[in-house]
Design a protein that fits this description.
Two copies of one chain form a homodimer. Chain A has about 475 residues and is α/β, with parallel strands linked by helices. Chain A is about 40% helix and about 15% strand. Chain A folds into two domains: about 5-295, Rossmann fold (3-Layer(aba) Sandwich), CATH 3.40.50.261; about 305-475, Rossmann fold (3-Layer(aba) Sandwich), CATH 3.40.50. The first copy, chain A, is elongated and about 80 Å long.
């Protein structure tokens, strides 16, 4: 490759001008909605519209074809019906457009004719244009001012996470869900059927891109398994690649075929791929989100021995049982640790054994800070998980004690600065009533304060363990036995 | 038994008077907080306080001991320190008190001395007093005006769910979580170490209680396995019993011992118990909540063949993959069904095959209603799950289309009335940002509207499938092969 992908895909991710093909004069076409979304998101480049007959739409001049646009066009967005797409691509080639994204569906995922149409597009493009799609949501590039269709309100800040996805729906969920982890993106690409740009080329882009340090992917099929595996392998221990492979079940394969017309492949082949490549395998949307996010918070290491601390006994039992499934160990407290802890918490309704039970979430802040340091300082422990120590319900239940809660948040943040081991905070969603939305608001505010202090926060112990397990397995596979601080 | 448990436990669940032992003059004792909570909750009976020296506390007359209270006392609430409890129980016996709840911790769960103290209490009570606890949160009885410590704002309405729990923390979570399913309670008992009333006697109570139709339990140990198994068995197919057994792992057993001093028992013994008794086994808090709730919404049956309908293709792939783990089937659409569905949705970016993809959540209401009826009318299908059809994000993204959303909710409710198969709605938590709390508020309002129409609503497909699987396994075990409508 003489030209780097960073350069080659610059017009796609940072277009100086965008042409939209598929606007209607009635203002409710997909192209019109894309135009409105792009404006609302704040795209700063030039926008051109293409329409066969109209000369002005929504206050912008319209041209009969891409070829008629008098200036340079970096990116063409296409949502015109499938049968028109080959001609539009031909116009793009004639105009010298370097990049297009095709939202239009109705290709290989619907019929054999659709498959032929898709191949025709590829042939017309002839390698001169980089194509995202068809049958996709396109590109969200915060740095380029570019967003996908439901993305008018997506964050405008750049981040370090790159997304490769065959599903547009999961991509929008991911971007919204990322708020739970204060996660931001370098580039997000929903590429659907992937007639040109696909998991291989997009991963190669992210491999080159210095802004991207973690890559998350939702894949249904694969085009060049060998090349993809090699790229993932080459990033092992450098840029983690987390992959949710959809369609591993028999029924899932059928659904994949209806969705993106992909060949889903066999489970055994995919298992071998994960084993050989070092990609992190996840199997649900939440797991993809949680696992991608944890790479932004922890320092590389293989963490297996856990301490739990929380305001309750039943939660310690549940946490212990859950650890078994992930082969985490909860080392027994030494006499020394029990001695130190027993000086700080009441003798009854508590536990000085790991999992530690403070008896109530209402631990005085200075006690909590000290406890966290004692437990984290214990050599047998690789990581500390605290749970049920924030009780935003207090706001409703015991209003006068709210200052306690704020002090506890500050104490955890202070303790974190002195702890050189991973700290995970489980911040439970306590109340689901429509009349208790204030509790959820309080929870999100506590969460954001902790995230901003560099602490990984998750809504339940199961999700904390699953993410930590995936993280530890990744670094173990990458050759790291245990974190050396 | 000559006297029924309903009569015997009436003073515990519907006390005409409560005495509180463990109030302090400084107003921050556990007893004082219980007093404030009870008043705030609206308990209408007489309240007496007991204090060794004070004659008045918080505006109420205080007596030196329970024996000195001039009138009848139905229930004594004890939070005085452990060493004082035997004498207090002796006073209760002398006074003829029929029921006590002991919040106090520091018994068998902390030491051998604590175990002896607990046995002493039992001996002194001599079978004349029914005891809840020690080391517990006590009783929440909406009908009796009684609540447990953090329960000032619990619902005052009666319901059909009975709870038996060794953990107070999980009980409070359950009561708050029940809002997500519009679930209310007959009685909720956190019984901790269970020196007298325990899983056996409480289940026998619920077996008799006509208000209770479903029983959920969090257990750490068991006292009389045979009797418990027989009671559960006798309720098979009549009152489902859903049990989360804590401490099945080795580390969990250790934690159980520190929590309630229970003997956790072996996994193989518990597996046999579940198999023989017909109790529904669950293994997390969320699973207990979801599974208990589903019994309030579906009609008894064994549902295995599912149809999915949603606004997206990726979600259909994920749903298909998840079905595999639960052995659910997603029958392939017949030509007839495909024909009918294809008349209602666009030919591209959709799927007329099961899992059905409407292409976008923005399906016109009348189309959605019609689609639901077509798919539910299909004979191969036992149950219909709809997902990603409500898009409360619209309020922010496309404000002008909000009326569409309300119409869709109404359409689902209307369709439900004409569908004689289970309908489950997955209402995803879409946005987690602190600045997007309005979306969560909208979501909860849509949820409540659907719940009020008798529709089971859950936040993701996995939880829907797990609950439906547990429900179907229960009815299969109870001898029902398939629902006959």
């Amino acid at each position: 490759m003489s030209k780097s992908l960073l350069d080659e895909l610059r017009p796609l991710f940072y277009p100086e001008s965008v042409a939209i093909v598929g606007v209607s004069t009635s203002a409710d076409g997909a192209g019109n909605r894309f135009l409105q979304t792009l404006k609302k998101f704040g795209y700063r480049g030039r926008i051109y519209l293409v329409h066969p007959t109209a000369t002005e739409i929504e206050g912008l001049k319209a041209y009969p074809s891409v070829r008629d646009i008098p200036e340079k066009v970096d990116l063409v967005n296409i949502s015109a019906p499938a049968p028109y797409v080959p001609q539009i691509i031909a116009d793009c080639v004639a105009k010298g457009v370097p990049a297009v994204e095709i939202f239009t569906a109705g290709f290989r995922e619907v019929s054999e004719d659709g498959r032929k149409l898709e191949l025709e597009i590829k042939k017309i493009a002839g390698g001169n244009i980089r194509i995202v799609g068809p049958n996709c949501f396109g590109v969200y590039s915060p740095g380029g001012g570019l967003t996908l269709l439901p993305g008018a309100n997506y964050p405008k800040e750049n981040g370090n996470v790159g997304i490769i996805s065959q599903s547009g729906g999961w991509v929008t969920d991911f971007i919204w869900g990322a708020d739970a982890f204060n996660m931001k993106f370098s580039q997000v690409v929903s590429y659907g059927n992937g007639v040109d740009l696909n998991e291989v080329s997009l991963l190669e882009y992210f491999a080159e891109d210095p802004n991207t340090t973690v890559v998350a992917a939702y894949l249904e099929g694969i085009n060049d398994g060998d090349r993809f595996r090699k790229t993932v392998s080459s990033l092992r221990g450098i840029k983690p690649v987390i992959i949710w492979k959809g369609g591993l079940s028999e029924t899932g394969k059928r659904a994949v075929n209806s969705h993106t017309g992909s060949l889903a492949g066999n489970r055994s082949v995919w298992n071998a791929f994960f084993k050989q490549s070092g990609a992190v395998q996840v199997s649900s949307f939440e797991e993809l989100l949680d696992t991608t996010a944890i790479f932004n918070y922890l320092t590389p290491g293989n963490y297996r021995n856990l301490a739990f601390m929380g305001g309750g006994g039943g939660i310690g039992v549940a946490a212990s049982d859950m650890c078994e499934g992930f082969s985490f160990k909860i080392p027994q407290s030494t006499a020394e640790i029990m001695g130190e802890v027993s000086e700080l918490i009441p003798p009854q309704g508590t536990s000085i054994k790991n999992p530690f039970d403070t008896g109530s979430p209402r631990v005085p802040a200075e006690v909590l800070e000290r406890l966290m340091q004692i437990v984290a300082g214990w050599t047998e422990i690789d990581a500390l998980i605290i749970h049920r120590l924030f009780f935003y319900g207090l706001r409703e239940l015991m209003g006068e004690h709210l200052a306690e809660e704020d002090a506890r948040v500050a104490a955890v943040i202070k303790a974190k600065q002195r702890i050189d081991k991973p700290l995970l905070v489980v911040l439970e969603e306590l109340a689901y009533g429509s009349d208790k939305i204030d509790i959820e608001r309080d929870r999100r505010n506590v969460r954001d304060a902790l995230l901003n202090a560099g602490i990984y926060v998750t809504p339940n112990v199961y999700r904390a363990l699953r993410a930590l397990y995936n993280y530890s397995e990744y670094w173990k596979g990458a050759g790291m036995k245990r974190k050396v601080s």
